[in-house]
# Entry
Amino acid sequence: MTRRLLGGDPLAAVELFPLSHPWAYAHVQQAKHNTWFPEEVPLHDDVRDWHERLSDEERRAVEMFLGFFNPMESLVTTNLLLSLYRVVTAPEARLYLARQAWEEANHVMAFEYVIKTLPVDRERVFGLHVEHPAVAAKELFQRQLTEQWLVTPDVESVEGLQRLVRNLVGYFVILEGIFFYSGFALALAFRQRNLLRGLCTIVDWVLKDESLHLSFGIHLITTILEEHPEIMSAAFGRELRELILRAVELEEAYNWAVLPEPLIGLDADALNRYVRYIADRRLEELGLPVAFGEPNPLRWMVAQVDIPEIVNFFEARNIHYEVGRTRW
Amino acid sequence: MVSLVSSSLHLRPIARDEAAELDSRILSCLQQLPDRPEAEREAAALLLEKIAREADDGTPLPYPEHFRRFVERGIARGALDPRLRTFQLDVLARALDPARDALLGYAALATLADRYLVRDPETRQLLERPQALFMRVAMGLALVEPPEMRTSWALRWYDLMSSLRYLPSTPTLFNAGTPHHQLASCYLAEVEDSLESILGSAYEFGMLAKYAGGIGTAVTRIRATGAPVRGINGTSGGLIPFLHLYDALIASISQGGRRRGTMCVYLEPWHLEVEAFLDLRRNAGDPYRRTHQLNTALWIPDEFLRRVETDDLWYLFDPIVAPELPDLVGAAFSERYRELCRQAETGMLPRRAWRRLPARELWLAILASLMETGHPWLTFKDAGNLRSQLHGIGVIHSSNLCTEIFLPTSRDEVAVCNLGSVNLARHCSPTGELDWEQLAETVRLAMRALDNVIDANLYPSERAARANQCNRPVGLGLMGFAELLARRAVSYAEPAAADLADHIAEFLSYYAISASCALAEERGAFPNFAFSRWAAGVLPIDTLDELAADRGLPVEVDRMRRLDWEPLRQRVRRGMRNGAVMAVAPTATIALLAGTTPSLDPYYANVFSRQTLSGKFLEVNPILVEELRRRGLWEQLLPGLVAARGDLEAVPGCPPDLVARFPTAYQVPAESYIEVAARVQKWVDMGVSRNLYHAADRPGQMSAVYLAAWRKGLKSTYYCFVRPRMEIEQSTVAVNKARRRPQWVQLAEREVLASDAASCRLDGSCESCQ
# Structure
């Protein structure tokens, strides 16, 4: 029974091979190669930028960014361990969930490292997710997804599986695939102007991890849908689509709070059009109809993310080396 | 040409809102890239205007006026050398050519504005505009000429540099003509096995780094952990903690934000602590035994690689029992090393002072570290020494920060080298026909400029001043090779690429040596000339056979020559101005300024970004853009080009001839990079910094590449780029249609499904070797 993706014996010891879901194990292997630690990134120049080059509005935007990411990464860990580890029982998939939980913890520590190095208003940053309505709304949205699933975890009924998929979409697709990508664009906009390059290197690394999480999540969701085609009813598709559209609204409100005034190189309107563009892509990935049909307004993300990067190694940290490759 | 994206857009004295308005306009141009390549020119023009407004207090002046004012203000504010007044300033002012500003791309201007242009020391206001920079540097180089000649030399060098035919290295561009005229790129030192030397060197390294010198230092002599320490009744903590000290030191010196303090430590692989050395750059483990800023390199004797090839044992020693090994090279090293092995086996050495392991085990650990961390760089001690024109004057104990300098060091001498590079792409027609005559003229002018740096330089250290005067080394290199190939429609992977490299290197070497002879005739030979190989009429090409004889192995490189070297040989016997003349440096930053490809490096991809201290710049292979436009395919293929991450093979509808002509760096076999370097190294008396790009991702597969580098007589290799397996999801490309699985997942899946591969013995028996 342990070979079942879902609903096997949750207490059984691991028998990894033979693999029934090799894609999951492939993700574990790649995740291993991507191992990094925040202390590898010097923040020296970021501290100088903060003092010498950032405007007050820019500092505020960075604080909002940190105040969102730091607690939100921990929600992902919680959901992985409390919601998913209980019911996802294929050993190779569990291995990945455990690994991902560690990565999320590493991200928390990474943002902690930034918050404790930059002269930000720490109390404000740590309190934002409670005190700022736009951040709190996103947190509540995620929290409810976990709560709704934990009421009665059930992977035998169609209704139960639908709630599980809803949870997966909420975390892998919405939080990690939309909210985080919007945040990355905000941070990388600073690098466009050669600011906060240390923080942006951390973002590059987080982005690499999140990209893998998202990929795993999409595999997990599509595998469940393939194994249980009955759950993807027209009504359920509409429900997922609405969930995503609701998230877009929350993100748009949040971005207006982060960027009440345009900064050089980025404003809330453009960022929100980017959010809608990303949301369309997530809908596509789930096989749902797109909602906005807008072009990508942030073409500069081409240089920041989409194309191969060569690092002048005396001047920036190269994040492209992969560890754990010692098999000959 | 199509370069862009980010930079420091904070320039002071123009009113803040005016600056912000220009910044916004610049960014909005940059954000149109890569869709509209013209936007890069527009951004560059705006940035030029911004620089001019700041430098001229709000209203750009005509260049002659700007220049006169710049010199006066610069001197008054302590930013320029007062001796600049000794030139005919009006003549120089009229010579500034505003049209040449247009040669500078956006990335070049952003980098200049961020770090190179002279600023007011107090207010940080920019004082200098780009053409004034080229003139200021030319003047700094001409300061050692007789007063009546200074103006005319400055004019010639201004023309040479502002046309981007030649650029000196960054420290010269930073500091020439300023009161802090430290113009040399590289310092090579050796740390002795004493606390006095370790700490004294730390002080010296700090001073060298302050003025933009990069440091390479040998640390092989430092005793290993557990070695006795006299006088304190204790034992040593070994090499590693001291390297951590140097790491912290170098990180603390940021060169005023213009360049990061940089240093590379060299260790010979027989040091007892070599395995801990391999771990220095790993991202896990005790942070006090790690060095995140320090670069590491191995200084490998032939004996080690011979034992790797024959699958023999390798012995590690505490240098305290083998203090003579760092000074021995080639066969003499091997002889002594074997004697030490014998002593170890017969109980004549303390048991804690040696260890043995299979040579291949260490070799694979080295390659694994290289793959995972990019370190240590692999450099070859015996080729470095046996092919040195200064062999006999002193032992070379390491290369430098960028692995192209090979000069002797000792307790009393810190070697210094100043560098400059010829831009091949500015000596050719649009289709890559080289103008050889102009190239020869450039080399002549460049060699004189480099020779002047030796006398103009402000030495931050006494030991450095001494060594530089005795050997007077300079390092002429090149850039733009890949652009030249692209223009000629030759792929880097073709044999024609290596032939061209051979041809160019021979030509540059011939004219560099000729120029140094001419300088010797005018100014006298370098003081150590009589002890050098030059005096014996030995040319760099001759030393290939000496290396082969010492190794007892052929050096596998084509010996063809195109020029008549015999008359030059006779002239060389009479005197050389410089103990060393050529070194091919990586030129990462000056190539960006010159708008061409660095050194011998390929285009990384046909669209890629370059992450530097001054920003992240997007680059599209400009020759490809021209070609696509000519064929009317640009608009059609651009979206695919980004989606394919610059790999034409993956662009639907791309003509096959273009796919073959414009490979990405990883599509060129690593063997081709080695071959090009070998054919250049053949002619170069110092070294060739060779970046390598590996598509293979197993140490076993990389072994063959590095062993070929050694057999072909390379003196060094430099950065090791390994193609990342996983690709980050693209943000602007809507390729991720429903349920299409990324290619890397499919590949990785196949791999995990394959049964456990036998571990590799480097004998071709395992799957990944085949």
Notes: Strands of chain A lie at 309-311.
